[in-house]
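Hello, quick one for you while I still have it in my head. A protein chain has come my way and I'm curious about its shape. Can you walk me through what the tokens say about the fold? No rush at all, and the record is pasted right below.
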Amino acid sequence: MSARGFWIDHFPGNFLWSNAALACKGMAPYGVVAMDEIDRIAEKLKTRQGEPEAWQQEWCAMAARIEHGADAAAAQGHDRTAGNYYLRAGNYYYTGERFIPPGDAKREVGRKAYRCYREGLTRCHPEIEFVEVPYEGVTLPALFMKAPGVPQRAPTVVIFNGMDNCKEMSVIFAGLEFAKRGMHTLAIDGPGQGETLRFRGIHSRYDYEVPGKAAYDYVAQRADVDPARVVIMGYSFGGYYSARIAAFDKRYAAGVAMTALHWDLAAWQIRIREKAQAEGTKVAQSNFQFQWVVGAADADGGIEIAKRFTLKDVARQITMPFLVTHGANDRVVPAENAQKLHDAIGSKRKTLRVFTADDGGAEHAHVDNRQVGIDFVADWIAATLPD
């Protein structure tokens, strides 16, 4: 257990589970999970750490219980209560789905998660639009959250998720804060993310400026968006996506990597494979996750694809204002990678902010205190965008 206690390492010696649990706990400030419910799940899991099916069983059992309560509240016309329950159920299903290998079982749990997310967001956040972003002959699912009471053509933040996240999480922990500051949000499941990957079979790509262009094209044609004040943002794995997009699409006014990605992604994937083979609970990622996201046939294929995911000769092309944030105690992507990205960025207007344990937000993507991280990002964007 770390010196910071069970909040960070709920399963001492099992970083795979502790990290996944922490990502769910990180949504607590937004009322879409309950610490009591998470604690009850974790207490049952503590005695089942050697059972391969335990993780999904316990998270999904709680999700089903909460979903049943949501359905009952909805039947009685208590829509706001139902919405709160649905959002918690959605997050628990999504957390439970995390370590299920790709296939029918994973899709089934995913469908339950997205059904609950939609039912919850519709009831609790009617200001959110469910939209489709045109992309190479198909569309990418997205959520557009409007800031209340702002004039036409407001600034807008486009968010691409991390590897294990989804637009529903993004629009809550980030979109709500941006809305308070008069900014709209487009939270999008890009290639290799969320329901785009799970139900449409669209895998990630190294040249993420292509979906980045599609996202900009979509928001720029909206009457409520100021096309001169659109920001590109990504977090966790999305820190690569946002930096790549910023380098190639100069129409964005500013960029944010809320956590940098590994500077050498292929080397990281090799280490993940070696650690997973030796002791799988010591890593943050399941052995299938990356190759599934990028559409590789096996781990070796995933490593070959990872070699193309590099900002080494790309970051210098970023000329817009750009922010990199990172956690000093990040055990998924060490903080040295944030410094490397910051140093390589070509823009003269660049900022690096590393959060310590005293600050809060010191873990990966600031999940130990999302509020601190996203407040800094939101304030930086508000101060950086032109009037």
The chain has a mean pLDDT of 94. Residues 1-124 form a domain with the de novo design (two linked rop proteins) fold (CATH 1.20.1440).
